[in-house]
Amino acid sequence: MDFERKKRPVTPVSSENSESEDEKEDSRRKKKYRKQKFSDDWLQLPEFRGWLEKIASDQYMCKCKACNSKIVCGKSELLKHSRGKKHMEKVTSIQSNTSLTSYFIKKQNENEVKKVQNFEVRLSTFFAEHNVALQVVDHLVPLLKEIVPDSKIVQQAALGRKKCTGVIKNVIAVAIRNDLINVLKTTDFSVMVDESTDIGLQKTMCLLTRYVHPSNGFVKTELLDLIKLDAKDCTAENLYIHFRQVLTEADIPLKNIIGLASDGASVMLGANNSFASRLISEVPNVTVIRCICHTSAIIANKACVNLPRAPEELLRQISTYLSNSSKRCAQLEEIQEYFNKEKKKILKVASTRWLSLHQCINRILENWDVLISFFRVAQVDDKLKSAELILMDLENVCNKAYLLFLKYVLNYFNTLNALFQSKKPLVVELYNASKKLFLTLGQNFLKPEKLHPNVNVNDPSNYLNISDIFLGADCNNLLNTLPNTESHKIRLDCLNFYKTACSEIQKRLPIHENNFFENLRFLNPNIALDTNNNNRCINFTALCEKYEVDLNETVLEWRGMPFQFDNLEREIYLKKSLEEFWWDISKIKNFEDKLVFPNLSLLYKKCLTLPHSNADAERIFSDVTDIKTKKRNKLSHEVLNSICTIRSFLKSKELNCTTYQFDFNKISINSNILYDHKN
Fold it and tell me: Are 668 and 110 in contact (CB under 8 A)?
């Protein structure tokens, strides 16, 4: 079925109706447009940054700071404005001119950054000085931020374990080492070298330098490097190659070395094929000094060989018996209290400690009756053979006599040893102290007329009668109560001790007249300003030849020195320390503005640089033991070296983490320096 579509009739549209329709269409379009508010994200866009500004009173409008005009908010509108020729010219002119306000803001930001860096450096110095694990900083800094929320410096600090390690290794230690290298390049110095004695796969060689500081005249000893060695090759050749490499890389002239100190090991100071022989071949005038602390300990050990081993074994047995049981220690304290003795532990003899034997002997003798009573009880209660043997040795009066003798004689060695472990410059006292030790021991068994450093100590005709040999007041009193046979044997053993000790002193210590160290007495202020020429008799020939100083001018300056000052000035100078005295003397000028004592000043600086012992090197190895413990065994050698460098520097300058001020002008702190990706 077909359907026809019906057409609707078309009604004509009048002009009035068409106009009304257009107006309605325009109104519909206007209603669709929505005003856009200002977005803070626009300020961060690179095309708007620097010239776009928000208007607080109108959120639909923004401002161009360059053109000083308002713009309708909208990203497309802003982009159109940014591409305008007038706008681009304005922005270019503003960027070329820095405002005064921005200058002060920049300065303020730089000061804040330096304050934050100073906080991080000082805190890292604290970790290095006090041997605190570096992982602690991961909790310490956040904790400080919680405790001190109102401090901008603390809040801005970003110090973690890795950054703290970088500050210690690549900033503080590098700055300290650079300062030291700059001084050594132009200053005479001595080196102290020692090798570690541990049984690890890697050994270390400590390289210390000693010099007179050119700005204040004080003698300083600082660590230059802690050199890593292969335990399979610690020959003198390899040690010297590593030593030479450190100086070459630092561009330090080898000719500036005037002294070498080390222990008595043959690999270090042997006559042939040693570290010292190689250095002497390149620097012939270098002065080689054996550590007097090591030397005195060796002398005492060699002399003790002449005594029976029983007394020393007794010390070890007692300490071992007590140290293995807290119950026995408590019982010993009860007996000490019963005898009205001070409660003290029995010390253990340490073979690596120079002064330990004398202290252990003193402690045993103080508790001699207490120990006898203790082991009498222990023999019954413990029923151990060791307690019975110890009691037998304690009741043997001969053992007590030997210990009383050692208490008397070892005191002299320990006094010398303790004196030269000092950090003060004591090379001037080396001759007098060594000679005093020889004469003190010699007077106990030599005839008075034979008592001089060159005496033949092995000639029996030079000895006193065996009964007149002095072994200490306590020992002599005890020997008077013993039978003659036992007393005679003990005296003979002690005489052999004296003979060996004095013979070794003659070979190892500078006690003979007209030797190099005797002439160093001129450094003593009391001798330098003494008007009595007999006391001021110094032979400068060897010193001047060795250090290339004019001999005639030096002697003239020396002879005229006491008469440059009146009594009041002399008293003032004598109150000064050795370093202050010679520093002030070196600055004295005449009316022509010329130095009065130029040659003596040059000579004193070279002589004071000489080390008197190697104790500072031993202190470095003690630091290494304290720093690299079992819990910190993964600490790298570079970090260990840096921590030791910082601690050595602080000790030499008498500073600590609270007084140390880092100079930011010497080294800049940035990520490239802090984080060394090479390692």
Answer: no
